[in-house]
Each structure stands twice: as structure tokens, then as C-alpha cells.
Task: inverse folding
């Protein structure tokens, strides 16, 4: 099929995994009723964003894959007959954890996973304490809704990640996300940050001729230790077409189910008039493998 309907579930944390998954189930059913073939959830949707502090007890939020969390998500995908992109705090082994996206087919089977490759370490986003960088590389996941280039949050700032997914045949780029403002930032700074976030991802769509689906969480989450100012996640989940044009965009303050229709055949048409892949000078890019060019 050329056209598919996609849905992004922009949600806030509702307290714990059971409450969050119950709300996710409601939203996925609504998406299926609206004709969605593919549903994308936000980053680490089963609980509060865990990385505002460094606390060993927060590793208790992690879960094995497969495990009870994926069993529940598999049932949701199976009942609604949708392809589902989920995001989990993965416990791979004692002392080894990942920030992992899991993709379920319409029958509830796990058809692939992606472990977040770029791990931030910033005030309020202490992910390096919790997550080992991914080791699965940049490989699209084949589903009945298309070949999905699944990446996670901080990956969305890196053109290399988007390009490698495109070069491997991804038909769309998908970013489960948890990003927000420091409440102390003024309105001008908040606007600059969110505009940069939207712009860089639209640039990935343009440079690769691919639709982009970016699903962010929303709402205020306090620092559990009461030390930091907390995070105001800015929502603004969106879907673009292959030229970076907006197909749908959510607000910044409330949970929302975002629905969009994507024409997958447009990538071929767009790449014929903007042949970026044809004109790449792969003979001249060796220095991209350096950390910095000290000349």
C-alpha cells in the first residue's frame, strides 16, 4: 500500500507503569479506530523520566526484553492490529542497561529492537549513568507498515544516524523522545530550543527524502530529590513528509493523539528532483570518522 495512516501518542507520566500502560492501551485503541496502521509511543513511556538524578534504586524501573512489559505491549498491538513502536528501560544483564525501542507487528510479535546509540549527559538528563550506548547499529526494521528507521531522542540531533538509516533503505525515520525545558529558561530561550529541535529533524527529512515521525512526552515532572527544577516536557510531537512539510503537529501542553497520512511513494518522486544520494561525494568524506579535524 502506498498510503498509510500513522498515529503518535503524546502522553504525560500518569504515576506508574500500570497507569501509563492503561492509558496507552486506550490511546492505541483510539488510533486503530481512526484507521492507524502504525502507532508510535514516546520515549520511556512506562514511568517517569528516570534520569533527572543519579540514583541506583532507579535501576529497579528497568525490565527484560521480552518480559512482562513487552507482553502487555504485545497484547495491545495484537488486540488493535497495529504495528507498535514502544520504548523501554532495558535490563539486559546485571549492571548492563539500555534505552531501547521495541517494534511489534500486528500479531504482537517482536520484529526488531533498536538500542539508543547517542547517550546524553547534561543537567536533568543524566543518561550516561543509566544506559550503555547501543550496539545494534543503524538498521531499519521491516514491518507490514514499512521499513522503519527507528532512533531514539538524542539520536535525532545527529545527521549521521538519519543518513545511515536512509542508506539502509528506511522508508521513514521514527524518534520516540523525551525532551523539555528547564523551567528557569525565559520564553525566548525556550522558543529557540524547541525551534532548533523541530528544525534539525525537518532537515533530516529534507536531506534524506523521508517522512519523519517524532513523538515527545508532555507535562511537568519534578526532580525526585527536589534538588533540580524539574523538566517541563514540551510535547509538540509532529509528522513531516519527505520535503520536511508538516503533515500533523501536536500542541505543547497536553496529551494528544496525533494522526497523519503518509504517502510512501513520495520518497521516490522527491529523490528524483532532489538527488542528494546521487551527488554525495563518498570519496571525500573520510574525515567524518575523526572526532575533530586538527589542522
Result:
Amino acid at each position: 500500500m502506498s498510503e498509510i495512516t500513522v498515529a503518535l501518542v503524546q502522553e504525560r507520566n500518569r504515576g506508574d507503569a500500570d497507569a501509563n500502560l492503561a492509558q496507552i492501551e486506550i490511546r492505541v485503541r483510539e488510533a486503530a479506530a481512526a484507521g492507524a496502521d502504525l502507532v508510535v509511543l514516546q520515549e520511556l513511556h512506562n514511568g517517569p523520566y528516570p534520569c533527572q538524578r543519579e540514583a541506583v534504586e532507579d535501576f529497579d524501573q528497568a525490565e527484560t526484553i521480552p518480559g512482562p512489559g513487552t507482553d502487555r505491549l504485545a497484547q495491545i498491538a495484537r488486540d488493535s492490529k497495529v504495528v507498535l513502536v514502544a520504548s523501554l528501560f532495558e535490563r539486559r544483564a546485571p549492571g548492563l542497561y539500555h534505552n531501547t525501542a521495541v517494534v511489534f507487528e500486528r500479531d504482537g510479535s517482536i520484529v526488531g529492537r533498536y538500542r539508543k546509540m547517542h547517550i546524553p549527559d547534561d543537567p536533568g538528563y543524566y543518561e550516561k549513568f543509566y544506559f550503555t550506548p547501543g550496539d545494534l547499529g543503524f538498521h531499519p526494521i521491516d514491518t507490514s507498515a514499512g521499513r522503519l528507521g527507528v532512533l531514539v531522542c538524542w539520536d535525532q540531533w545527529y545527521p549521521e544516524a538519519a543518513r545511515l538509516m536512509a542508506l539502509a533503505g528506511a522508508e521513514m525515520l521514527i524518534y520516540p523522545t523525551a525532551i523539555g525545558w528547564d523551567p528557569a529558561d525565559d520564553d525566548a530561550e525556550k522558543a529557540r530550543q524547541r525551534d532548533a529541535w523541530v528544525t534539525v529533524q525537518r532537515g533530516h527529512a529534507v536531506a534524506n527524502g523521508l517522512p519523519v515521525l517524532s513523538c515527545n512526552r508532555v507535562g511537568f515532572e519534578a526532580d525526585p530529590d527536589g534538588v533540580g527544577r524539574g523538566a517541563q516536557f514540551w510535547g509538540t510531537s509532529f509528522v513531516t513528509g519527505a520535503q520536511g512539510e508538516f503533515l500533523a503537529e501536536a500542541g505543547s501542553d497536553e496529551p494528544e493523539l496525533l494522526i497523519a497520512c503518509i504517502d510512501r511513494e513520495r520518497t521516490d518522486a522527491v529523490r528524483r528532483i532532489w538527488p542528494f544520494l546521487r551527488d554525495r561525494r563518498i570519496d571525500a568524506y573520510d574525515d567524518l570518522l575523526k572526532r575533530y579535524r586538527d589542522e
Notes: The domain at 3-289 is CATH 3.60.110.10 (Nitrilase/N-carbamoyl-D-aminoacid amidohydrolase). The mean pLDDT is 96. The first strand starts at residue 3 and ends at 10.
